[in-house]
Amino acid sequence: MKDRSLSEFTDEELILEFQSNGNEKAFEILVQRFKNPLTNYVYRFLGDYDSCVDVVQDAFVKVYRYKDNYSSLAKFSTWIYTIAGNLARTEYQRKRRRNFFSISSFGEEDKSFDIPDNSNRPDVAADMNLKNEIIQKALLKVRDSYREAVILRDVQELSYEEIADIMKIEVGTVKSRINRGRAELQKYLKDIYND
Amino acid sequence: MNEEEKTYKKLLDDLKNLPKVDAPKNFETELLRKINSSELEKKESFWDKILTPGKLAPAAVALASAAIIFFVVDINSEEMEDPLNIAPRLREDLVIIESIEEIPVEQLKKSDRVKEEPGILNEGLAETKETETQVLPNVVYEERSEMNSKGVDKSLADELISGKLESDSFKSDDSRSLGGSAVPSPVTTSAAEISKDNLNFMQRNLSTEEKKEVQQLKMKVQTGKSSKTEQNSNK
Q1: Is some CB atom of chain A closer than 8 A to the CB atom of B34?
Q2: I need a labelling partner for B156 at 20 to 30 A (CA). Which of A60, A174, B13, B187 fits?
Q3: Phi, psi of A108 (to 5 degrees)
Q4: What is this model's ipTM?
């Protein structure tokens, strides 16, 4: 009965319940609600499933440990997206340092590398799975800050205001970054969209 | 839909239709495991880290030693002497004896005994090998015999010597030296009994006539003293 009522709570009510009463059921419901959106967001940002699962779990661990740091003035989704985004950025930079001598070039906005890849051929691109793979690869080439904004807006479908809160920037900056990110992405995917 | 979205319509549709990536089935289990392990590794506070006995003990020792050094060593002390301005140290173990009167009676007696028993001399020499001076009992004996031959009454001379030397501080038993020649040799004495004022490093060679005059003066003084003591005893 109590579980049923908890499931009807908003995100903010659940985290307050967890804060004030230490009700771990409230935390579990929050995990259920946010684990898939966060996994999707972090995966699109990192491009690596194992790393993305670790990052999302670390984000929930931080919520659990530092639940008292949450302020009821902000939306819970904004708070947890900010935590996950920060952890994802850290993980991405760590991976980039590790793959410094790799052929992959992350964050190079002005350079376009012609990597021989059969999936770039128009006939193969027709396949949806391959197309999605190409889009994901192109996303990873976009600069970090643009990519984050594009993912939050066009993949996660969050509002500009929410994105501004998550990234702690102005709404105008968010729009600008989204446009630039889209332009970059379009450039990397020109073989698909020039047909 | 604004102009920008029309430009990127295909792209935006593709992004929107990207397959959703879900969390694995064991996500909650792994999450609980991480939470439990993180609870064990809960971060200690700064004061908890500082106030552990393992860190307090060395800090306390360092503090105590710093306090001791501060109170014991006075950096601004005026008593500190500039090593370049210190007067040279006195060789307290070196005393120049110019005449027989300055030799302690005990040493004279001992030197006599040493003469009688040469074995003792050898032992004494062996014992004082490490010292700077050496015992020369023969010379002492010769000096005394010389005094006797010059007409000085032995008992009087002994009395004179003892009277003079009782107040003297030369009591070294182990090593002493007499200058057989005109220049006297140094004699070792105990450092605690010698003060700077009593030392006279000026070396002067007395002629035999001068020595006689000095002896006569001393005898006069001594006879005057002895007559006074007799009068006192008669009273």
Answers
A1: yes
A2: B187
A3: -90, 100
A4: 0.78
